[in-house]
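Hi R.,

As promised on Friday, here is the backbone we talked about, encoded as structure tokens. Could you run it through your design pipeline when you get a chance and send me back a sequence?
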């Protein structure tokens, strides 16, 4: 599965183009939140999910982990909490996901960014290392992991290829986030050995 910048730019013609150059995808997405009512602290900014999904038009099996307040989205939602706001299809930890190997084309994630954010969500700090391992396990060879965070996470170059860095701006005097996209470097032979 490949990223498709042309599909993204066609789906979002009002916005500055996202660019593909020399094997990289980059850009700045302005996803203002001034008129969006927050359902859950730290939720996706307006238009973010539409753009992220438009970048992967061929993704059929999509996982949102943690899913927070997402409902009625394409794919499977997973979160450690279930309450009146968070209603995941699957309740589990992102560090130990209950899916078979090679299940997904795309994983999208907007995890708690800090210990303080985790406290606000009522959970332990996000298990980024375990999440990266589990994501690689449940992604098909050549599939993608997109993480919205305040920085891009550390990763093992033999397991992941960083293929996109997109700044996500929500307004003035607000922190800019980074949408990092990784491609699993797991090959078909490695998948068959499991």
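Update: got your reply. Pasting your designed sequence below so it's all in one thread:
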């Amino acid at each position: 599965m490949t990223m498709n910048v042309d599909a993204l730019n066609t789906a979002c013609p009002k916005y500055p183009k996202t660019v593909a150059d020399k094997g990289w995808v980059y850009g700045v997405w302005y996803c203002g939140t001034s008129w969006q009512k927050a359902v859950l602290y730290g939720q996706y900014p307006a238009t973010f999910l539409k753009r992220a999904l438009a970048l992967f038009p061929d993704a059929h099996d999509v996982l949102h982990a943690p899913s927070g307040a997402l409902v009625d989205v394409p794919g499977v939602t997973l979160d450690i909490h279930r309450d009146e706001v968070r209603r995941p299809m699957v309740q589990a930890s992102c560090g130990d996901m209950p899916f078979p190997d090679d299940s997904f084309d795309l994983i999208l994630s907007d995890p708690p960014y800090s210990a303080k954010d985790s406290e606000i969500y009522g959970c332990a700090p996000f298990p980024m290392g375990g999440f990266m391992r589990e994501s690689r396990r449940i992604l098909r060879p050549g599939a993608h992991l997109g993480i919205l965070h305040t920085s891009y996470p550390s990763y093992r170059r033999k397991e992941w290829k960083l293929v996109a860095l997109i700044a996500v701006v929500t307004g003035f005097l607000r922190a800019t986030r980074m949408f990092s996209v990784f491609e699993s470097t797991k090959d078909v032979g490695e998948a068959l050995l499991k």
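One thing I noticed while checking it: The chain has a mean pLDDT of 86.

Thanks again,
M.
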